[in-house]
Amino acid sequence: MGRRFNRVLARLRRDFQLSIITLMGFFGVLGITPYAVYRFSQGNYPVAIADTVIVLSTIFAVAYAWRTGDTRKPGLCLVVIESLCATLIAIKLGINGLFWIYPLILLNFFMVTPLIALLATVAVLVMLVAYASVMPGTVFESHYQMLSFIVTVMMASILSFIFAQRAHYQRKQLQSWATRDPLTGARNRRVMDQELKIAVANQRRHNISSAVLVIDMDHFKQVNDRFGHQVGDQVLVSFVQLTNRCIRHEDRLFRFGGEEFLLLLCNTNEKGLRAAAQQLQAQISAHLKSPGGPVTVSMGGAVLYANERWQDWLERADQQLYEAKRAGRNRIHIDTYQVAETAKTA
Ligand SMILES: Nc1nc2c(ncn2[C@@H]2O[C@H](COP(=O)(O)OP(=O)(O)OP(=O)(O)O)[C@@H](O)[C@H]2O)c(=O)[nH]1
Is the CB of 218 under 6 A from ligand 1? Predict the structure, then answer.
């Protein structure tokens, strides 16, 4: 029980959007349920049903987010459903219903991207004003009240939009600082460990094979010594740009050490690994250069075995890199399961 609770807390701490959707859901259900009960007791069924739909859809959205880890779809659904219900409630209750539009604005900006939230709020405003124009005296008691409502809603929306945009940008920047190498933009070592663990889990649960390629610049010290550190840096940056252009969208490049990189290829067997390595090497031979001429790389690769620990998998690829270096550099060495088995039995 205690461990389960700790796991829930850890997940909430790790996943910002999940914690937001949970918090909003909690307060939404807590705040609206008494009103739903009250409206039913008063016989105001359209509003009672709208309140109930809000409560149930909120519970469903939070449960969906927890089960799947996807917060985008339930967030969007909530924004659409709650905007429609809040509009209906405001139409039915007039000024008493209009108060609910303000928490709705906040909810929108917490749940979806700032632009979608702004559009949703404007849509609610347009629906209310259009209805009030067709049926005067239903939603607003006077033109002055309608104008005040439009101005205050727009002010609240625009300020929320600016704040949300800024928070969105800062979160992205923080995420980038925490996960990317500042020089090359490749993913860093911390993310690498996590992604390798995910690949191992995918192998165990879904039998999806993954492969790694450890790539190391050849004689890179000479580049630094002859042309300076800045030129060395530029070669590293060019290498990452070149590699990112060559690999598939789902593959991941990490900066493993100084001039050592790791390429994680998902859903790849030994044949695929070899083909990817050869293609990358051809591109590097053709395009990666320092002022002293072409820069070559050595590569060591390994496909993940069933039930293998990620550290052992990495160790095998590293061993192959070592062999490639020892064999003269500018070459690819791939660890083969069959060969390893044969060698053991021989
Ligand atoms: N410019 C630059 N150089 C780096 C960076 N990180 C590591 N290096 C350099 O990479 C070089 C690595 O040298 P070695 O480990 O001797 O390897 P090497 O010269 O490539 O030789 P082999 O790997 O055996 O082919 C060192 O000179 C490091 O200073 C970096 O961020 N920028």
Answer: yes
Query: Which residue, judged by its Cα, is nearest atom 13 of ligand 1?
Result: 221
Element containing residue 263 per DSSP (H, E): strand 260-265
Q: How far apart are the first and last CA of the chain?
A: 51
Give the pLDDT confidence score for residue 140 in this predicted structure.
Answer: 93
CA distances from 190 to 180, 221, 335 (A): 9, 25, 25
**C-alpha radius of gyration, the chain, whole number:** 29
Over residues 4-16, the pLDDT tens digits come to 888 888 888 888 8
User: Could you tell me if the CB of 326 is within 6 A of ligand 1?
Assistant: no
Q: Ligand 1 atom 21: the closest Cα is on which residue? A: 219
Tens of pLDDT, residues 202-228: 898 888 889 999 999 999 999 999 999
* Residue 81 near residue 55 (C-beta atoms within 8 A): no
Does this model's pTM top 0.90? My answer is no
For residue 107, give the nearest of 51, 29, 48, 25 by alpha carbon: 25
Mutate to test the pocket of ligand 1, among 184, 217, 226, 259 (most ligand atoms within 8 A of CB): 259
Reference 281, options 246, 252, 256, 307; nearest CA is 246
Helix (H, G, I), strand (E, B) or coil at 305: coil
SS3 content of the chain, % helix, strand, coil (to 5): 70, 10, 20
Q: Measured from the CB, is residue 325 less than 6 Å from ligand 1?
A: yes
Is the shortest distance between the CB of 331 and ligand 1 below 6 Å? no
Residues designated as active site: 259
CATH class label, 189-345: alpha beta
Task: List the structure tokens of 202.
Answer: 């995918």
Could you give the strand order of the β-sheet that contains 252-255, starting from the edge strand earlier in sequence? 252-255, 260-265, 211-217, 297-303, 332-335
pLDDT at 283 over 90: yes
Query: Packing angle between helix 270-287 and helix 229-246, nearest 10 degrees?
Result: 130
